[in-house]
Amino acid sequence: MTRSSGNPLTGSVDVLVIGAGHSGLAVSRFLLARSVDHVILERGEVANSWRTERWDSLKLLTPNWQSRLPGYCYSGSDPDSYMSMPEVIDFISGYAEFSRAPVVTGTEVVSVQSLDTGYRVVTNRGEWRTRALVIASGAFNLPLIPAISDALPGEIKQLSTRDYRNPHQLESGGVMVVGASASGLQLATEIQASGRQVTLAVGEHVRLPRIYRGKDIQHWMHVTGVLDEKYDAVDDIRRARGVSSPQLVGTSDRRTLDLNALSGAGVCLAGRLAGVRDGKLQFSGSLRNVCKLADLKMNRLLEAIDDWIAERGPGESRDPAERFDPTDIPASPRLGLDLAGGEIRTVVWATGYRPDYSWLEVPVLDHKGQIRHDGGVVEVPGMYVLGLPYLRRRKSSFIHGAEDDARDLCEHIVAYLDATSTSSRIRMAG
Length: 430
Description:
Distance between the termini: 41 Å
CATH topology of the largest domain: FAD/NAD(P)-binding domain
Radius of gyration: 23 Å
Strand content: 15-25%
Largest sheet: 7 strands, mixed
Number of strands: 23
């Protein structure tokens, strides 16, 4: 049911969804099941960000068996492997065809404005009117580049993870990767293997083993209910939503990727990049404490998994409990680096992303440009958001996390449409 670019379009629907990624397609599936009139607008093609804004070697952090959307799941022969970008694109595109989602591609939203009866959505190809709006454009639209990037000398090449594709883009010579989440570690590993010396600036991070007691760590987080933890059961949901992605990598050998592995490969570890002055980088002295905290939190999770297994008996895992070596920190971590010496030629910013709501002309953004919402229900009537970290559950940002969130929000949408229809009929009768 995908309609591609061509003549300008205009129309009126009960629900308009912005974004034909996995979240937008998931809510569409539930809306179709309830016979709700709707359309999905996509600025590029289905799964556009996976096609155009990812590096070449990227693989999912979750195993194939966890790749599923409403009524649709991975059906290949290697459930314990990890999808490459072409495989992710095929999976999501296949789902769009399978679910017969009403997608209009090549349609970029220019503005969204409130109306008495819903919302006016202006695109590069025409206008739409809708009673309810679902924003599923994703959380990873714009790279978060720290302001200190402006202080770097002009001869230093700078790239974000959205711009990076492979090491061939980089200048010859040393590279500094800023950020120690999954993206930062994967890029540092790849770039170091290309023959360039990498310095990794490490801030707060989440350390996890790839395999624990014979099974993928995602298996244990699934069966123990960690991934299903609700947003309203968390003490500080704002902080929880800002936690970086865990240090995991999807490889055929299912290896653990952590700071010890990087050090063993020759990567130089430094603390958080704190400033740039007179062409000299300044690193925080908190590297040891940050790594100790990550080790502590990992061990707490492993202890909780061990307790869960013990309560259910040996059938859950024949492999014994294990603990991993503490993060090995240099005796005297470097606190500075003079860029004039030529040691660093390129800086790769693996410092996260933020959504782009520059087109949203409805006053629902906080001081950080984030949509104010309660589990995806925005504070203005008839507006919803999907696909953000920890939206309703810890798993919300994963592909398989879209199903439960989309189901919940679809119920809310249908109830809203019914209520507003009833209210309209009452006013007309009066």
